Amino acid sequence: MSSVAVSKKKGFGAVLWDYLTTVDHKKLGVMYLFAGVLFFAIAGFEALLMRIQLMVPNNDFISAGLFNELLTMHGTTMLFLAATPLLFGFMNAIVPLQIGARDVAFPFLNSLGFWLFFLGAIFMHLSFFMGGAPDAGWTSYASLSLYSPGHGIDFYVLGLQISGAGTLISGINFIVTIITMRAPGMTFMRMPLFTWTTLISSSLILFAFPPLTVGLFFMLVDRMFGANFFDHTMGGNTIIWEHLFWIFGHPEVYILVLPAFGLFSEIIPVFARKRLFGYSSMVFATILIGFLGFMVWAHHMFTVGMGPTANAIFAIATMAIAVPTGMKVFNWILTIWGGSIKVTVPMLYALGFIPSFVAGGVTGVMMATAPLDYQLHDSYFIVAHFHYVIVGGIVTAIFGSMHYYWPIMFNRTLSEKLGVLTFWVFFIGFHLTFFLQHFLGLMGMPRRVFTFQADQGWDLFNYISSIGAIMMAVGVVLLVINVLLSIKTPPVNRRDYWGDGRSLEWSIQLPVPFYNFKQTPLVRGFDPCWLEKQEGNKEMMTYAEPLGDIHMPNNSILPLIMSIGLFIAAFGALYHPDGVSWSVPVIVIGLGITVLAMITRSVKDDHGFHVHVEEVIATEERLYGKGGNK
Amino acid sequence: MEETKFTPQTWPNHAEQATAEGKNKFVGIWIFICSDIVLFASVFATYLSLRNKGPAGMEFTTQSLFELPLAFVMTMLLLTSSLTSVYAMYHMKNYNIKGVITWMAITVLLGLGFLGLEIYEFYHYVHIGFGYTQSAFSSAFFTLVGTHGLHVIIGLVWITCLIVRNAKRGLNLYNAPKFYAASIYWHFIDVVWVFIFTVVYLMGVLG
C-alpha cells in the first residue's frame, strides 16, 4: 500500500493485479479509454465491411444475415461500448482534477462500473463465436427481436443489462463527486464546462438508464422465461418496448453529446486564448438541453400512429432543443471571434466540429417536422443525420480531446504533424461518406438494406460513400499509430502543457501524482489556472491547506468478482430457453458470487489509508527531482 | 484509522454526515433513489397499460383476483416497519446502539412478515392458475409487485448485515452513515408500496 514502493520496477503480475484492483480514477480513465478504443475499432471494422458490401449494387461480399448482425453490432457497440466509455475515460481522468479532488466520491463503485461495463461488452461480443450476433438493429424493436431465432438477441439483452448497470453506477458516482468533492472556492458557477456537462449528462444517465433496464428485463423474461409483455396474442404490446427504448434512447444521444460539447468548450477558449464567451448561458443551455432531451423521445415514433396531437407536441418540443443548442454554437463562435487563434490539432477538430455538427442539427430539425418525417423515416437521410451528429459531434470531440488531454493522462504527447494529417484524412472521409447519404435518403434508399438494385441513381453515391468510409478507417489507423509513437516521446514533466491552460487541471505538475494534489487547492475565481498565471504565481495554484497527511482509498478485487458473478449468471439465463438442466444452477451460482462479494464489501471495514507527509514529500521528490514540486 | 470514542454528549448532531465519506453516502443514496423512482415508474406505466390484458377469454381481472384485507395487512406491516426504522434513527442520534439494534431488528421482523404474506399471495395466485406466464397481465403484475418484493429482500439482507456486524462494537462515524442510508432506502421501499397499494389493489378492486 505504500506509495514509495511504486518507484520500484514491478513485475507483470503485480502490474496486472494493480490494474485489476485499482480504484484510482486516473487509471480507470486510461482503462476506459483503451477499452473504448478497442470497441471503437471493432465497430468501425464492422462499418467498413458494410460499406464494402454496399459499394456496388447486387454485391454478395457478405450475406444478408451477416449484414444484419454487423449493422446491429455496429450501432450497439459504437453507442454503448465505444462512445460512452471513451467519454467516461475523459470524465474519470479529468473531472476530479478540474474540481480539485483527490478521487471520485465512490472509488470502489468507479471500479465496479468499469468492470460491469467491460464484462457486459465482452459478453455481447462472445455472440459472434457462440451461434450468431444480435440481428434486430441497435433499437431491437420487440416485434422483430422477440422471434429472432438463436441466441443473438439474448446476448444483446444480457450484455446491455450488465454494462448498463455499470454505466448507471458510474453516473451516480459522477453526480455525487461533483456535488460533494469540489475544492474550496470551486462554486457551481466556477466549474469548468466539461465538469458541468459531466454533471448534466450523468443526471441524464440517472433517469434514462432505468427505463432501458426495465425494457431489457421485459425482453429477457419474454424470450427466456415465458413472460408475455410483448406478445400480442397473450395481451402484450410491442409498442411498450419502443417507448421504453426511446425514453432511454433519446436522452442517450444527449448523454453522449453534452460531454462532447463540454470538451470543445474547454478546447476552444484555450486555443482562441480568450475566456469562454457567455459562460452562464452555456451552463443554462446545457441544463435546458438535458431537460428537453427527456421530452422528445416519441419523435422516433412519428410513424407508429400516435395521432396528430402527440406528434405535434413532440415535434415542437424537438424543435425547441435547437434553441439552447444554437446558443452554444454562437457562444463557441463568439469565443473564437477576435481571439488570437492557435490552430493546434485539438483546435482543428473544434473548427471542424462546428459546421459538421450544425449540419447534423439542421437535418434534425427537418426530421422533427412530423409530416416530413413520414417521408424521411427509415431512409438513408436518417443515417446521414445521426452520423453527422455522432461523428461530427462526438467522435471529433474524442479525437480532439485525445490530443488535448494526452499530456495529462500519460505525461506524453501525440504528434501534431501526424495529428493534422489524421484530421484531414478522417474529416474529408467523414463528409464523403455521409454527405451523399442525405441525397440517397431523399432518393428513396431505405436504411438497413444489405444490397440494392443497379440503375436507380444510387450507384455512384454509394460508391463514393464507401470510398469515404475507407478514408475514415485510414484516419483511425493513423491515430492508433500516433498513440503507439507517443510511447517513445519524451515525458512532458511540466505544468500547463499548451501554455494557455485555463482550468485547474493545467495547474498540476506532470506526471500527476496518485493523490493528484499534495495540498487541496483554493479556487479564487473562474479559470483558476489562468487567474494564478495572470497574478504571476509560478505554482499556478493557491492552496487551501498546509501540507499534511493525505487520505486515499484502498484497492479492491471485489468489483471484478461482482462483475464476474453476473457474467456467469448471464450464461445460465442465456441457455435457459434451450431447456438445459444446468441453466438455473449457473444463474444461482453466478448471482451467489455477486451477492457474497456485496456482503463481504458491506461487513468488511474499508477505511482507506493515509499517506504521511514524509511519503508525500518523498513522492514529490521522486517525480519532480530534488526540492519536489516547485 | 483511529477509533474515536464518543459519549452521548460528544456524538455529533448529524453523525451520518460528520465525515466526508458519510456525506458522500448521504448524497449517493438519495441520487440512487432518484434513479430507482424512474425504474418503478417504468414498471408502473407498463402495468397500467397491460392491466387485465390477456389471451382471448381470460377470466382473471383485477376485481376477481385482488382482496383488500390481505393487502391492508401487508400495508400496515410495512408502514409500521418504516416507523420503527425512524425510532432506530432517533436512537442513533442519541448514541444509543442498543436502541438502534432493537428497533432495526423489529423493522426486519415486520419486513419478514410482509414478505411472508407476499409469498403466500403469489403462491395463491399461481395455485389458481394465474402464473407468471399466463398472460401479459400476470407478467406485468408479478414484475411490478415482484420488483418491489426484491427490493424488500435486498433491504432485509442489508439491514441484517448491519445489525450482525455492528451489534457488538457500537456506533461510530463509519457505520452511522450506513445505518442512515439503509433507513432512507427502507422508507423509499415503503413509499413505493403505498403506490402499489393504490394503483394495483385499490384501483384494481374499484375496477
From TrEMBL, chain A:
Taxonomy, superkingdom: Bacteria
Subcellular location: Cell membrane
Classification via Pfam families: COX1
Entry EC number(s): 7.1.1.9
Keyword Aminoacyl-tRNA synthetase among UniProt keywords: no
Reactions catalysed: 4 Fe(II)-[cytochrome c] + O2 + 8 H(+)(in) = 4 Fe(III)-[cytochrome c] + 2 H2O + 4 H(+)(out)
Keyword Membrane: yes
One cellular component (GO) term of this entry: plasma membrane
Transmembrane segments: 30-50, 70-91, 112-133, 153-181, 193-220, 240-264, 276-298, 310-334, 346-368, 380-406, 418-440, 460-485, 557-576, 582-600
UniProt GO BP: aerobic respiration; electron transport coupled proton transport; respiratory electron transport chain
Cytochrome oxidase subunit I profile domain location: 11-524
Keywords assigned by UniProt, alphabetized: Cell membrane, Copper, Electron transport, Heme, Iron, Membrane, Metal-binding, Respiratory chain, Translocase, Transmembrane, Transmembrane helix, Transport
Topology class, membrane: Multi-pass membrane protein
PROSITE patterns the UniProt entry points to: COX1, COX1_CUB
A molecular-function term among this protein's GO annotations: cytochrome-c oxidase activity
Top-level EC class: translocase
Pathway(s) per entry: Energy metabolism; oxidative phosphorylation
Main subcellular location: membrane
PANTHER family associated with the record: CYTOCHROME C OXIDASE SUBUNIT 1 (PTHR10422:SF44)
Protein family (similarity comment): Belongs to the heme-copper respiratory oxidase family.
Name of the protein described by the UniProt record: Cytochrome c oxidase subunit 1
Organism: Ureibacillus xyleni
Organism ancestry: Bacteria, Bacillati, Bacillota, Bacilli, Bacillales
From TrEMBL, chain B:
Coiled coil (UniProt feature): none
Membrane topology of the entry: Multi-pass membrane protein
Molecular-function annotations in GO: cytochrome-c oxidase activity
Predominant place of localization: membrane
Highest rank taxon of the organism: Bacteria
Ranges that cross the membrane: 27-48, 68-88, 100-120, 140-164, 184-204
CDD domains: Ubiquinol_oxidase_III
Keyword Transmembrane helix listed: yes
Cellular component terms per the entry's GO annotation: plasma membrane
GO biological process, alphabetically ordered: aerobic electron transport chain
InterPro entries: Cyt_c/ubiquinol_Oxase_su3 (IPR024791), Cyt_c_oxidase-like_su3 (IPR000298), Cyt_c_oxidase_su3-like_sf (IPR035973), Cyt_c_oxidase_su3_a-hlx (IPR013833), Ubiquinol_oxase_su3_dom (IPR033946)
Similarity comment text for this entry: Belongs to the cytochrome c oxidase subunit 3 family.
Listed name of the protein: Cytochrome c oxidase subunit 3
Species annotation: Ureibacillus xyleni
